[in-house]
Design goal:
Layout: E1 9-15, H1 22-32, E2 40-46, H2 53-63, E3 67-71, H3 78-87, E4 93-96, H4 108-112, E5 120-125, H5 132-149, E6 161-164, H6 165-169, H7 181-186, E7 192-197, H8 211-231
Parallel strand pairs: 1-2, 1-4, 2-3, 5-7
Antiparallel strand pairs: 4-6, 5-6
Helix pairs in contact: 5-8
Length: 242
């Protein structure tokens, strides 16, 4: 049996070359798990890291009871790492956070308070600690995405999210999908709630985002979403005798 089935909530943490953050992640998540509203575990998805991230993940998972890991054979990107983690999760709820610790796992409880009433509850980064240029890029990308998807979400780039696992497993995944999670949940007639969460400056490691994957690529992906939205298949089964 998948070990995540023993928990109510699984936190997925994609990791790519974040060796300097691994021990801080261990401390922060280790402090949160006993305080979680629901019994929780963490699943680290190592996305083909070329530094010492894999070694350190094996180390911390070996000494923490509720820590699990998955190693991807090669670097495939954030959306792929998220899909791999969701596919491997059997708990009722699944969450997501970045390994850079610019958000804190403590704030998952703010989201979990509402997860029974909403299919997805996501954070909005309050008082963002990023550079002016990075914030400007995000504002432009978010505005264009809202116009194209009509999802009503002000900060889809916030990495703190909680979803019903059965909804998350039905999301049509593609490269860049992580920016469209709210819209993709709404395609399933799911309800999305936004909650302000804390945001912190990056203190270790290097950001994996740049002008192309923060601004240009999302613009292109918006048109792919619009195409898919018109053709998305959604259904509900009343009963069966299988």
């Amino acid at each position: 049996m998948n070990k995540s089935a023993n928990y109510k909530f699984t936190i997925i943490v994609p990791v790519y070359n974040e060796e300097d953050n691994i021990y801080a992640l261990e401390k922060k998540i280790g402090e949160f798990l006993p305080e979680s509203i629901y019994p929780a575990c963490v699943l680290f998805v190592n996305d083909g890291s070329t530094d010492n991230s894999k070694k350190r993940l094996l180390e911390i998972c070996g000494r923490n009871e509720h820590f699990y890991y998955m190693n991807l054979s090669r670097n495939s990107g954030l959306s792929t790492a998220m899909k791999a983690g969701i596919d491997a999760t059997d708990s009722e709820y699944v969450g997501y956070m970045d390994a850079d610790l610019q958000t804190t796992p403590e704030d998952f409880n703010l989201l979990l308070e509402h997860i029974k009433e909403y299919e997805m509850v996501m954070g909005i980064r309050a008082n963002r600690k990023d550079s002016f240029f990075k914030n400007l890029q995000s504002k432009i990308a978010n505005s264009f995405r809202r116009m194209m998807t009509n999802d009503g979400v002000s900060d889809t780039g916030c990495p703190l999210k909680v979803l019903h696992t059965n909804y998350a497993k039905r999301v049509p995944f593609f490269t860049g999908m992580h920016r469209f999670l709210p819209a993709l949940i709404q395609l399933q007639n799911g309800k999305v709630l936004q909650i302000p969460v804390r945001h912190f400056p990056r203190v270790a490691g290097i950001s994996k985002y740049h002008l192309w994957n923060r601004l240009v690529s999302p613009f292109i992906d918006c048109f792919a979403y619009r195409w898919m939205k018109k053709r998305y298949i959604n259904y509900n089964i009343d009963d069966n005798n299988l």
